[in-house]
Amino acid sequence: MKRIKKIGLTVSFICCMLMASCNLIDFSEDCTYYGDVEIKPDWSVLTQVETKPTLTDIYLLSPQRNYMYSITSDTLVKDVQAVSYKLLVYNSYGLENIRFSGMDCPNTAKAELAIFEDRDRLYTVQASALYAANTDLTVIPFESVVSEPVLKPATRQINIDFVVIDNSGIGVNSINGELSGISYKYGFKQLDALESAAWLAFDTQKNANKNNVFSSNLKVFGVNPDKQSEGRIDNLLDIALETSSGNTYRETIDLTNVFSGFITRIINITIEIRLGLMGVEVAITGWNVSDGGIIEL
Questions:
Q1: If both were cysteines, with which of 89, 124, 190, 234 could 133 make a disulfide (CB 3.0 to 4.6 Å apart)?
Q2: Buried b (16+ CB within 10 A) or exposed e, 99-124
Q3: How far apart are CA 188 and CA 194, in angstroms?
């Protein structure tokens, strides 16, 4: 009987020691620890005309455990497993024509625009205002850490002004276009455009102050980010100009060289169209790039 009692006391002592070991300062590898994370998305990249998104999705990804949160402002998240994470962040409200996939792994996470085929061409759509971040985070046991991911704009803007020089007296009703080499995937791993094998169709609006200027503002993930990829296509601009007499003229301009250094947020392109009795002549007369603030010539 004494022997049985002695064994029971020994087992109880061992269990107590095992339970207590999870609270020791040396952090045993056999235990799971937790900490808190204060998440403060950094929206300093927004320009004066841009509005802070309403909802932000947060992904904490690690081999041990994945977490996902939707927050509207700075948020304290409690009881997060204390390991190292990849923190993926993006605005998740009001986005149209964007599908997210592979969000359980930082190497596969991406956003993809809608695509469709027409006349043996692959087309995509204009991109919504997507902002994204990919950063490292280490949660410390029994402590609170602060993470301030800086969200980078995923979309770039292409502004095209068509300036019509009408030497025929006929007049122009409309100008439409299609631009090739448009990216339709955005990768969270690289924080950049992934593929560029689609076309984007667009219309133009006549300038309210200048009747001979037709403008279009395109929002895209990028244009031919990988110049050497197997599926790349040149940046060709197909133009369809309809005159007031009902005739339609079509021209193609190669913009590949214009876009070769387009890594900023905005590019402005001016294209001159000379309309004569014998047809039309089209030429690129200038372009510049901008980060949304100061124009770089």
A1: 89
A2: ebeebeebeebbbbbebeeeeeebbb
A3: 10
* β 110-113/98-101 pair status: antiparallel
**Closest listed residue to residue 107, CA positions, set 81, 84, 136, 86:** 86
Could you give the CA distance from residue 168 to residue 278 in angstroms, rounded to a whole number? 9
Looking up tokens 């085929």 gives 117
Q: What is the mean pLDDT of each run of 10 residues along the chain (297 residues)?
A: 47 41 50 96 91 95 96 97 98 93 96 95 96 97 97 95 90 95 94 89 94 95 72 87 92 92 90 86 93 48
**In this structure, what token pair is assigned to residue 121?**
């061409």
Q: Does residue 135 contact residue 229 with C-beta atoms inside 8 Å?
A: no
- Strands 110-113 and 185-187, by their bridges, are antiparallel
Report the DSSP beta bridge partners of residue 118: 121
Burial class (CB in 10 A: 0-12, 13-18, 19+), 41: buried
Which residues share a beta bridge with 222?
A: none
Residue 13's φ and ψ, nearest 5 degrees, are -65, -45
**Whether the Cβ atoms of residue 166 and residue 141 lie closer than 8 Å to each other:** no
pLDDT of residue 147: 98
